[in-house]
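Risk mitigation, structural track. In case the binding assays with glutamic acid fail to produce interpretable data, a predicted complex structure has been prepared as a fallback.
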Amino acid sequence: MSHDAQHTVSTGSLPGRDLVEAVLDEAYERFRDLDEGEVIEGVPALADVEPDLFGVALVESSGAEHTRGDARHRFSIQSISKAFVYALVCQEIGHDAVLERVGVDNTGVPFDSVLAIEHNEGHPMNPMVNAGAIAATGLVPGDTRAERWDFVLRGLSRFAGRDLELDEAVYRSESRENQRNEGLALLLEGHGRLSGDALGVVDTYTRQCALLVDARDLAVMGATLASGGMNPLTGDQVVDPSIARDTVSVLTATGMYERSGEWLFEVGAPAKSGISGGIVMISPGKGAVGAFSPRLDDAGNSVRGRKACAHLSRSLGLDVFASRPPSDAS
Ligand code: GLU
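Fallback model:
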């Protein structure tokens, strides 16, 4: 039986190391020369990235790791931080409060849109685009900006299993041109969805987006959510299993901007992307893929990252929707 036929089902464990390595080779080699898409414009510190960079990593719930290409090249995490801050905030204030304050639904509008706020009487709805993510960061505990930043930095570092650092140039570049996010925050405050220091919340949010990670870090962070909230490399229980489950369920509907439905149809596993070209894809119980390539499609998702994830998902059985008839029925 070919590996495709054997491992397209989402239950059970990943195939053995040799097959995982072979499929990762395929995913890397097949797409390394693809140059479709455009690097993000508009954030000067992100625009001067080397566009040909391409890295893929897979970390299994067992702790086994696999990397290809530029998997150790660091870039700012951007929107992917939203998934992990959301998990940390859920852990602090609980499932029901986050549902009420932030929401869990796709809004179908671009990541920096004000429309979702206005359409839903001030309820940001989607924690994986800017308005909802800013509302989630607004729920981070702490009396001062410094305490709240410390909470975010330490929490995301625990997901990664190492001390993450800020890309100061990206942070400064985004801070200088942050009128849109500040506008979203003030609008949320006007609707009673952010209490106090709206601009301080945007500052924390901008910092969280500027944390430096590589594709392997993303795979470790995702594998933590895929493993009941326990980092499979460090053994640290970062969030409860129920919170990991809640976060992954939200990513399923919202993680890939307004292409989340198409992503599920084509790739079939919860994921989150960011405008610097990162993607994390999670297969509960099995592990996670981290991918990085800066050229984006028109929704802001990395083109090579998307293709690599689709190939890995199909060939390794990471797709959470695939099944096959019971063997005794055939
Ligand atoms: N820092 C970016 C912003 O807030 C993140 C955007 C993204 O990756 O979607 O606009």
